[in-house]
Amino acid sequence: MVKRNYIFDTIRKVYQSYGYQPIETPAMENSETLMGKYGDEGDRLIFKILNSGDFMDGVPPDTLDSKSLTKHISEKALRYDLTVPFARYVVQHRNDITFPFKRYQIQPVWRADRPQKGRYREFYQCDADVIGSDSLLNEVELIQIIDEVFTKLGVPVIIKINNRKILQGIAEDIGAPERVIDVATALDKLDKIGWEGVKKELDEKGFTQFQFTKLVDFIFERMTISADNKDIRILANLNALCEIPKSTESPKPEIITEGAKQLKFIWETIQSINKELSNNIEFDISLARGLNYYTGTIIEVKVDTSKCTSRFTSSICGGGRYDDLTGIFGLPNVSGVGISFGADRIYDVMEELGNRFPKDIVATSKVLVLNENSETMALSLNLIQLLHKEQISAQLYPDELNPKKRGKQKEYASKMGIPYAVSIDLTGEKNKIYKVKKVDSNEQEQSVSFYELISMIK
Amino acid sequence: MVKRNYIFDTIRKVYQSYGYQPIETPAMENSETLMGKYGDEGDRLIFKILNSGDFMDGVPPDTLDSKSLTKHISEKALRYDLTVPFARYVVQHRNDITFPFKRYQIQPVWRADRPQKGRYREFYQCDADVIGSDSLLNEVELIQIIDEVFTKLGVPVIIKINNRKILQGIAEDIGAPERVIDVATALDKLDKIGWEGVKKELDEKGFTQFQFTKLVDFIFERMTISADNKDIRILANLNALCEIPKSTESPKPEIITEGAKQLKFIWETIQSINKELSNNIEFDISLARGLNYYTGTIIEVKVDTSKCTSRFTSSICGGGRYDDLTGIFGLPNVSGVGISFGADRIYDVMEELGNRFPKDIVATSKVLVLNENSETMALSLNLIQLLHKEQISAQLYPDELNPKKRGKQKEYASKMGIPYAVSIDLTGEKNKIYKVKKVDSNEQEQSVSFYELISMIK
């Protein structure tokens, strides 16, 4: 918890420094707000809440299969991400919000997935979005935020960017304009399964050999300008995509050009800022991200395994621009862009890498006040108040123990990582009524005054 | 959000200063962990999660009423409070925990109640518990914590205490030993509905006239020692309860004595601590609290309406000792005691009272950097980085606007409460390239250098 809070606090501080405001939304949304926003797989993974009371009352008698019954007995569901509830929130409060609206939100989301390493049924998302501005400077800012957060956390990353419009253009180029998600999903797997695998996947989805060949041609003709310097290569590839090729037969190459120009602007703006990014940023045409609602820039962040020993290959942060998200809820033409940090995965990576958390974040007391007997009890309680006034966290060991059993109290201090154990000693010098012992050392117990005690601890 | 976080942070800091460790548990628990722990009303108010997938598969064909169907189609439920999940957690991790285990937990809970002012379907609880120690010093500490938190929040309160053993003894005294909850619930309403109402309620529940008379006799005979000084009166009443009356016919008066002695210890210990409490603490024999699992001390906190203008009568914090809570989960004989702050209600009270939140907690940027045109864009972005390095939160207005439309950017700054608007001006003196304007003042825009800018803002 203490370590996870450190991750949240790091993200929160960076968000706040860029002017993002905190909001929270309820865990439960109306089912119709969520259903259909994340694809079929998403719908299946949404946790539904059973209606309260006699939920079967009024259900038509023959409604016995799970699917049709669900609508009758469940009206609410747990949020699946923070973006859709945020869109609902923006539409609902549109008259009270000052646009552009920059908000951040750090809350858990729930998915009915099979739990496994790096994938949990309940996990936190840490989102920031800007809504009501189509300036690409928002993308630039979000990339700066990503860079700053991972630099502070000590996790080297690769920030991959792409633009959904390029993918849309490719889908149109190969004559499958309606199937941008299928093309994107297949291309997204290029890294993992290679062209063979992509071909197989497209075959299964009913794409033709001709369409596959056009796809391969496109990528090889327009995307493989080689250059030793990576940055130069990326810019060259983007420039190539910005040109409308003369030989093209595709119906709408302008979309590709538009997407490429947006990416080029982001790329060049980041280069122009005095402060260089600490992490690598890459243009990756095979980057798609599964979510339906992205329409422009797409961002995905992975651990840079060339710079550290992590074997973590999943995305630990991602985002993108969506032009139509609030349209579903009745507020069209409002463009937004956002990112989301996967705090639980980041936690796993930091644990895997080791030594990424500051040493002093463990939340424990500085002092354990030992409770010898009823005679010294009031003085012990009083000491705690005095220490608190000096901003020193201190707790009483609550169970009374005679001095012979003092070992158990010290064992508690040791296990809890509390550095000092203090007891009251009325038999010593008049003003030295405190006996202090450094818990995990062999040093002798010392009789001290209150001021000596304070200076020792501070 | 910003105000609520202030309440959470205040509570969190006090908890931590007393050595409580943070934990969190998942929102969903197995239904059998929660059901039966909060009485029939509680069971009804627990939100149940519909099983994923084809939940009707395998359900016996005639299972059509809501109650019997629930068991088949719902295995998980949303937590109803933080105490029961904590008990489950303690039992599950008993081998890794160092006892006494002091933990705090700040998370939302869910109840299928009709939403109304001061009662929400999702609300935060802020709990602290000590488990594995039966020392009454834990109660003393928790009362100190309550006092410290409300003092810091500026809300005057009355801290009422009682002991469930006294109520248990009364129930036995009137010959209804199994019905302590009914007696307690009726007595709990004494304040609101008077003796007439209590009689009616006990009538309805099947208590006899004889039992009611015994109850009235008990309260009047042993609880109404009058004295002008409230503290003296309380101590006198406690002392009276500590004595075993000679004339009694009750089967087990020792329970009352035991409870009264515990209360007296807590009362006297608090009096003995040098630092006086800021808030009033009262012994209230009609205090019961609804929850089944309390067995010793009971604590309830209400706004002290004699010291402020609040009309808020609900409990805003409460707690107590439970000797058997982990027993249900297979770990008997572990005593615990805890408290819970109702942050949402505290928020409402603080809003009602006004001026309770510090003025500087609003999370906004200090500086809005105006985005004039593409020529100055890189310098604008660079300025944000420079300000961040000086720990000054700053954001860019993302949409490019020509200087004539600058009003929109300043309007944004004003609405968001951002005090300074800065733009880049390449036409001025060489090192004074920043133009700064105090947003909500009539002062002229000034041309300044970076260092002049920093010193103005700081």
Describe what this molecule looks like in 3D.
2 copies of one chain form a homodimer. With 458 residues, chain A is an alpha+beta fold. The first copy, chain A, folds into 2 domains: 2-352, Bira Bifunctional Protein, Domain 2 (BirA Bifunctional Protein, domain 2), CATH 3.30.930; 363-457, Anticodon-binding domain (Rossmann fold, 3-Layer(aba) Sandwich), CATH 3.40.50. Chain A is 41% helix and 17% strand. Chain A contains 16 helices and 16 strands. Chain A has an 8-stranded mixed β-sheet. A 5-stranded mixed β-sheet of chain A has the order 13-12-14-15-16, sandwiched between helices. A 3-stranded antiparallel β-sheet of chain A has the order 2-4-3. In chain A, a hairpin with a 7-residue loop joins strand 15 (434-438) and strand 16 (446-448).
Q: What is the CATH T-level topology of the largest domain in chain A?
A: BirA Bifunctional Protein, domain 2
Unreliable spans of chain A are: none
Radius of gyration of chain A: 29 Å
Q: Considering the protein shown, what is the CATH homologous superfamily of the largest domain in chain A?
A: Bira Bifunctional Protein, Domain 2
**Helix percentage of chain A:** 40-55%
Q: Overall 3D geometry of chain A?
A: elongated
- The domain tally of chain A reads 2
Side by side, the strands of the main sheet of chain A go: 1-5-6-11-10-9-7-8
Number of strands of chain A: 16
Quick one: CATH class of the largest domain in chain A?
Answer: Alpha Beta
Structural class of chain A comes to alpha+beta
Biggest interface pair, counts: A-B, 80 and 80 residues
Strand percentage of chain A: 15-25%
Mean pLDDT of chain A: 87
How many helical elements of chain A? 16
